[in-house]
């Protein structure tokens, strides 16, 4: 095994190809595959999902997040309402479905730790793993901040009256559109991102609690996380369903739906709507971050690939639509009760979550109950993503150190160190009065264009350098055929989309 670790990956592949033809049974093939593809250390840590439901829940928990709740509705009404669904659905078919199949099949067949996704193809490509993992780190600290803010609002939801309740003499219009409580009282927003005037002790407590929950879920590995998803993934759907049925009983809920889906067909033939649809479908699906590959690496060899890659994107798309209906029914009610046009209400990003919804929830009977449900939903959505972020970063460091024979560190210590570094960054920046600026900075500069660029590099590596035909051969040995309809999108459409989107982002 020690000699195999120093063998050129391409030579390894050729040896593997020749060994398969000499063995007839699936058991012999699998034994040869495990010996030639995995080190003993990797095999020990590579736990398996017990059933398909655990895998689907893990993928949904990672893919379905804040982008489905607050970014998709904004993109929908910004780009012509219901017209936006046309390019979005097309992008799901020609981009997400092929990419999902590519990542899931690659992870399930090669079953490598994150640090060896690309050096298996060529040793010099290991930098891609480190580059993508650095992006995951920034996303993780950014997401941890949002989870901690939601958790803090959850704790405040037990107060009567709610802290963000309208002040005496404040009108409904001011309560729904003013960010006074969130910006001035909750965050204590400073004048600039480098002007740190104070820290919010309650947010610091929330960071501590959320970090501990994430760590203790991850440190035992998949054996714990695969059961945690039974709670963290269905719970937001249950709460979202309750909010949906509550929303359709409110007066004026159709105002929100009408504004959300009213089509503006003139935008269908503009470049902006297609660019927004492509970027939204990419970011909400969780692709190009190696995390789906990591999840798929824990599947069993004979688990079906095709239907998993179809079911998960469809459920992700459906969740975005369902969340938009549920949440914009409350927006319609707010417009009806306050007399404010829907277009004048804050319906984007953090303003939607921490300004508009708390204000309109306060106008409902028993506001504490609805506030608790809403922020439990957001907290669990964020935690489901955070588990995978921490696992990927820890796995990269553990695998890299294990390749150095002179260094052997307990994986649990590595996980603690990663979680501690993330915690220190979050406490130092995002719990301060400058936290609002840092969240916007990371959201705008540290993720978007970088993810698109790494998507292009990923496609170039797996489709052309591997190449795709060699991956298709291995798929056939696992009882499936690589769908022919995915060849053209993976070779032409997806790389072209990534390149055009990256150039457009750089240009602007």
From TrEMBL:
UniProt xrefs under Pfam families: SNF
Annotated Gene Ontology cellular component terms: plasma membrane
Superkingdom of the source species: Eukaryota
Main location: membrane
Transmembrane domains' residue ranges: 53-72, 84-104, 125-158, 199-218, 227-248, 268-288, 309-336, 369-393, 413-439, 445-466, 486-507
A molecular function (GO) term: symporter activity
PROSITE patterns associated with the record: NA_NEUROTRAN_SYMP_1 (PS00610), NA_NEUROTRAN_SYMP_3 (PS50267)
UniProt keywords, alphabetically: Membrane, Symport, Transmembrane, Transmembrane helix, Transport
InterPro entries to which the protein is assigned, alphabetical: Na/ntran_symport (IPR000175), SNS_sf (IPR037272)
Protein's GO biological process: sodium ion transmembrane transport
Keyword Methyltransferase: no
Cellular localisation: Membrane
Similarity field: Belongs to the sodium:neurotransmitter symporter (SNF) (TC 2.A.22) family.
Protein name per the record: Transporter
UniProt organism field: Euplotes crassus
